[in-house]
Amino acid sequence: MTRGDVHLADPAATLAVGARLAEVIRPGDVITLSGPLGAGKTSIARGLLAGLGLAGEAPSPSFAIVQPYDPPEVRFPVLHVDLYRLDGPDEMLELGLDEALFDAALLVEWPDRAGPDAWPDALRLTLAIEPDGARRLTWDAPAAWERRWS
């Protein structure tokens, strides 16, 4: 497991992280996005989806829970998932996310709602809001991500 962190000075830097992720993500990958409300989780997802070809702004999946994106709007299927409204891991089965991993990538906001054992091979990104309003991005990259993300 590789760990690291970086200072993100402004919203453009947060979107740029997503664009960088678009260069290395593949079907079957899971990227989790943690942090408080307003920290930039959806901004990273929007940058990634734009990097995969999405024209226009991606909506937050807060109410839909799962927002799918399919070719031709993106290079390969991606599910943008927001688990904030889930009450616990038992509700995960209804979403069918494990089956989606055969040909899609998952971007999962609020992954703690899925339980501590969900997606052990995920690239785990955590955002924190700094006192000056900037963001601190911390990551844990398992072996499957070590050569792709640093």
Automatic annotation (TrEMBL):
GO biological process terms held by the UniProt record:
tRNA threonylcarbamoyladenosine modification
Q: What is its main location?
A: cytoplasm
Q: Which GO terms describe its cellular component?
A: cytoplasm
The record's section on InterPro entries has: P-loop_NTPase (IPR027417), T6A_TsaE (IPR003442)
Q: Which UniProt keywords apply?
A: ATP-binding, Cytoplasm, Magnesium, Metal-binding, Nucleotide-binding, tRNA processing
> Which Gene3D superfamilies does the UniProt entry name for this protein?
P-loop containing nucleotide triphosphate hydrolases
State the source organism's domain of life: Bacteria
This protein's record includes keyword Metal-binding: yes
The protein's location, in the record's own words, is: Cytoplasm
Q: Name one GO molecular function term.
A: ATP binding
Family, according to the entry, reads as follows: Belongs to the TsaE family.
Q: What is this protein called?
A: tRNA threonylcarbamoyladenosine biosynthesis protein TsaE
Which species is listed as the source? Sphingomonas dokdonensis
